[in-house]
Amino acid sequence: MLREDEIDLLLNDLLKLYGYDFYYYSRESLKRRVSKILRLEKFNSFEEFRNRILTDPGYIEHLVDRLTVNVTQMFRDSDFFMELRNDILPQLKNLPQIRIWHAGCSTGEEVFSLAILLHESGLLERAQVHATDINPLVIEKAKKGAFPLSLLQVYERNYLNSGGKADFSRYYTASDNTAVFKSYLTDKVVFNTHNLASGQVINKFDLILCRNVVIYFDNELRERVFQLFDGSLLTGSYLALGEKETLKSFSITPRYQQTGKEKIWKKIR
Ligand SMILES: C[S@@+](CC[C@H](N)C(=O)[O-])C[C@H]1O[C@@H](n2cnc3c(N)ncnc32)[C@H](O)[C@@H]1O
What we know:
- By secondary structure, this protein is of the alpha/beta class.
- Helices cover 41% and strands 19% of the residues.
- The protein contains nine helices and ten strands.
- Helix 1 runs parallel beside helix 3 (46-55), helix 5 packs across helix 6 (109-120) and helix 5 (78-92) crosses helix 8 (152-161).
- It is globular, with a radius of gyration of 19 Å.
- The model has no long low-confidence stretch (mean pLDDT 95).
- S-adenosylmethionine (SAM) binds next to loops.
């Protein structure tokens, strides 16, 4: 297991040399992940690993990919997508343009899920979607919209459980063990790298989805990220978090009201 001073050196190098701020991630899980990288990639010592970071900028993308947890699914937590479909999207239907931010979108499964909901609700044409993640490798994958065919059975079940009624296979073309989702679903999506810890504002949004991302942050970074979201949401807009995440006990909390059973909040003032 890594020592405390070694993890400090690593975090300092990543921030100073490459602008990646991992200071506010849960220490224990970072330590576990870095120790695993050292073991699997057969570094003989922490010094050898650090030397690679200092001398090989090309290694950093790979390292960020390993440090971040990119697990995702289409229609993950089907009850959440059911509430989004039945209760939230209808509230947005009179807007001339629907601006959506998927923050921490990983390889894009969530983006394609929402695009299908928007399509089925007749709102896709008016949607402007920003899909961002700190990890450039997952963003490249997300842009392709190609997922292993072996996962599609689970994704189809999730889709049906979330209230989907269509033939799911009409949304993709299958070939060579890969399902490539139809490009009209993401014509309006801009995929970009963006680090939530940077505090950089992208735009104003009617709906922000940031699911299963802040769970890896400490409370200080959560507070900063929620302030960033607050500054990016108009009154009457929505913020959606993951199943194990909450907006309770932050400075912006009094301005938000949970809309139903799922982790979706409306900005009320
Ligand atoms: C577990 S995935 C969640 C994916 C998707 N939102 C979902 O719920 O299925 C977490 C994602 O957050 C991204 N992430 C972690 N730290 C981030 C940061 N500081 N800024 C932006 N994205 C970040 C990771 O790269 C990863 O792709």
